[in-house]
Amino acid sequence: MSEYLLEIQDVNASYGPIQALRGVSMNVREGEIVTLIGANGAGKSTLLMTIFGDPQASSGSIHYRGQEITHIPMHEISRLGIAQVPEGRRIFPGMSVEENLRMGTMPIGDTHQETDLQTMFAMFPRLKERRSQRAGTLSGGEQQMLAIGRALMSRPRLLLLDEPSLGLAPLIVRQILSSLRTIADQGTTIFLVEQNANHALKLADRGYVMVNGEIRLSGTGEELLANPEVRNAYLGGH
Amino acid sequence: MLGTAHDNPKVAALKEALLSAAITFLVMAPISGIVLKGYAFEADFTVPVYAALIVFVLRLAILLLEQNETGRKILVRLSPSKGGGVTVAKPGGVPWLRFILPLLFIAGLVLPFFLGKYWLTVVILAMIYVLLGLGLNIVVGLAGLLDLGFVAFYAVGAYMFALGSQYWGLGFWTALPLAAATAALFGGMLGFPVLRMHGDYLAIVTLGFGEIIRLVLNNWTSFTGGPNGVSAPNPTLFNLEFSRSAKIEGNIPFHEFFGIPYDSSLKYLFIYMVLFLVVCAMIYFVNRLRLMPMGRAWEALREDEIACRSMGINHVTVKLSAFMMGAMTGGIGGVFFAAYQGFVNPSSFTFFESALILAIVVLGGMGSVVGVIIAALVLTILPEALRDFADYRVLIFGILMVVMMIWKPRGLIRIHRPYFRVKGGKA
Ligand SMILES: Nc1ncnc2c1ncn2[C@@H]1O[C@H](COP(=O)(O)OP(=O)(O)O)[C@@H](O)[C@H]1O
Ligand SMILES: [Mg+2]
After folding, report:
1. Largest separation between any pair of C-alpha atoms in chain A
2. Are strands B230-231 and B236-237 parallel, antiparallel or unpaired?
3. Does A114 touch chain B (CB under 8 A)?
4. How far is CA A56 from the centre of its chain?
5. For the sheet containing A206-211, what is the strand order?
6. Facing residues of B219 across strands?
7. Residues of A with CB below 8 A from B426's CB?
8. pLDDT tens for residues B358-375?
9. Domain residue ranges of chain B, discontinuous segments joined by +
């Protein structure tokens, strides 16, 4: 078994003529919080989706726990223990909060369903209050909590999140990020894609900076926070 | 609208109502005011005048009601219901349903004994549409795939029975599962190429598919009999035939076996009974299915495909299964239709049928089983009840649709999604 939980090597991916990823290499160790920051359209979401096989990498390789997953179809990835909180949350708006959470156990079956449901309600009490409300009527922050909870219901080893802070008030962003801290402390490895570089880098052990489909910089959270290039580009020069 | 500022509001209302009536008359006069008599035509304006009168009275009533407090209250009560779409049922279900359902079941079983032959055939046709509605409901209502060619599977089932008996001597009971399987196969055939399509594109391709099947049936004269159609045999019960004299060597007619006089409604009675049981089984099945991983996967897929796929749902098998289950139901409906008519030809399987079945699903409230049943009964029995207004049936049908969409834009029955708990895991 390799030293990395997730290892991406020299991956290229494109949408038709548009090349969205250019020779991307990065890795995540078990137990870490790793973040990927970059401007709009840099290719962050594409990288997350490439891990899930859509779009597939045209060259390069992706390994998860030593197993090559580059060409595994999307619906089989979640059974390996990777869960995704996609960009825009993508909860099931017509189902109730509780049903959304229960849907999350699809990849692993319902053995732990009841206990895990209680765990999620303990972690996000607001979801418990709204358990039989239609998910589409939740506020943005609550929907984000629901998306995270639903992903956790499959007991993932590796949790991928795509811009969970998007469009949320600063207070809610802090709540969400602190719950990510809790999740990580309980042993789930986290790979977090963010534009909100300040918060993400403070939370993360390590980070990568993506520009135009390439990894431009990498380092520990503190290193990147101190890096003048990062400060100029993503933190408004403060 | 027309009135100036110093007009008395009552006078203004009168003016506007008159204008509405005039417009109605202008629109209706050329449509139904001119009657063809051989090669000539003559003007008969009674219908347009009545239409204009009705519009005048209604418009005036609404305008006058709007002018005082109690009137406004009445209008608010009549106005379209607003509010969120799907509600989720409370866990545990509805208690009184336990008593109502068996009663309805028994009522359904004894109903045909109180009907004359004519109404029996009407009710059979209505039940066939209930079955078709339930089938299309799986595809459109649950899985959210807009299928405009559903009639194709109905045709496949009907022809499977008719041609099967002509070429291979298949009976009703053999044809039933065979037609279900064949229709499911056709569903799969249609499903594969359209898996990557959504919305409008899917609708167009399925529309084309429905037409292709009909054109093949119409033009492959040597095999299908073309526009002349094929006759379908009477159904049998343990080799007892429901006809005056046995058509197949060795069979005994049902009435001879029991020593009762021949009655042609016996056949319809039998078809009704089998059909009723099949419809009940289907309702039970669909309701169960919605609680199982496959049914939940259909609904989840309708809501968000990407989320589903990243949660381990294989969208290919899930969509295909919806297409095939829907098609299978359509095929079964086709067998009953052929047995009921005793004859099939391509003109029974036009786009209008697809549209009617889709109307049943939409009016029923997209996904609601009870809604589909009510809509199917209304849309098939109402035109029969309105036979006296034969010329205006389609018009009334259209008005009904428009009114429905204004008053209840989400269908007759608000979808009450059943509450589910995950059992079994993988889909
Ligand atoms: N489905 C798609 N089809 C075509 N181009 C796409 C698609 N999704 C993203 N792209 C393009 O790929 C590039 C990277 O996009 P994305 O990965 O979404 O960026 P980010 O998540 O960093 O904002 C952008 O130029 C975008 O226009
Ligand atoms: Mg993105």
Report:
1. 50
2. unpaired
3. no
4. 18
5. A82-85, A158-162, A189-194, A33-38, A206-211, A214-220
6. none
7. 79, 106-107, 109
8. 888 888 877 778 888 888
9. 9-78, 105-417
C-alpha B343 chain-centroid distance: 21
The CATH number that applies at residue A188 is: 3.40.50.300
Q: Does residue B417 carry a pLDDT above 90?
A: no
Taking contacts as CB-CB distances below 8 angstroms, the residues of chain B near A76 are: 312
Half-sphere exposure of B317 (CA within 13 A, CB side): 11
Look at B254 and B395; give whichever has higher pLDDT: B395
Ligand nearest to the CA of A49: 1
The boundaries of the domain holding residue A149 are 92-154
Ligand 1 center–CA B331 separation, angstroms:
44
Q: Which of B169, B156, B132, B216 is nearest to B338 (CA)?
A: B156
Question: What whole-number distance in Å separates Cα of residue B128 and Cα of residue B136?
Answer: 12
Closest Cβ–Cβ partner in A78, A94, A110 for B311: A78
pLDDT, position B425: 41
Does residue B357 register a pLDDT over 50?
A: yes
**Do A118 and A179 sit in the same domain of this protein?**
no
Question: Does residue B250 or residue B37 have the better pLDDT?
Answer: B37
Query: A36-86 pLDDT, tens per residue?
Result: 999 999 999 999 999 999 889 999 999 999 999 999 999 899 999 999 999
**Together in a domain, A121 and A218:** no
Q: Would an 8 Å CB–CB cutoff place A103 in contact with chain B?
A: yes
Within 8 A by CB and 6+ apart from B64, the residues are B10, B13, B71
> Domain ends where: A154, A175, A204?
A154
Each residue's pLDDT tens digit, B366-408 = 777 888 888 888 888 877 776 676 677 677 777 777 777 776 6
Of A154, A188, A208, the residue that ends a domain is: A154
Query: For residues B197 and B205, what is the distance between their CA atoms, to the nearest angstrom?
Result: 9
- Residue B85 pLDDT more than 50? no
Element (H, E) at B37: strand B34-37
Same domain? For A166 and A199 the reply is: yes
Confidence of residue A230 (pLDDT cuts 50, 70, 90): confident
Give chain A positions within 8 Å (CB) of B425: 105-110
Q: Mean of the per-residue pLDDT values for chain B?
A: 80
The answer to whether residue B280 scores a pLDDT higher than 80 is: yes
The Cα A167–Cα B329 span in angstroms is 45
Q: Is the CB of residue B99 less than 8 Å from the CB of residue B108? A: no
- Atom of ligand 1 at shortest distance to CA of A38? 22
Task: Tell me whether residue A224 is in a domain.
Answer: yes
Tokens coding B287? 């309701």
- Least Cα distance to B140 among B322, B377, B332 occurs for B322
The percentage of residues in chain B with a pLDDT greater than 70, rounded to a whole number, is 79
User: What is the Cβ-side half-sphere exposure of residue B58, based on CA atoms within 13 angstroms?
Assistant: 9
Name the residue of A18, A54, A195, A196 to mutate for ligand 1: max ligand atoms within 8 A of Cβ: A18
| pLDDT at residue B239, as a whole number | 65
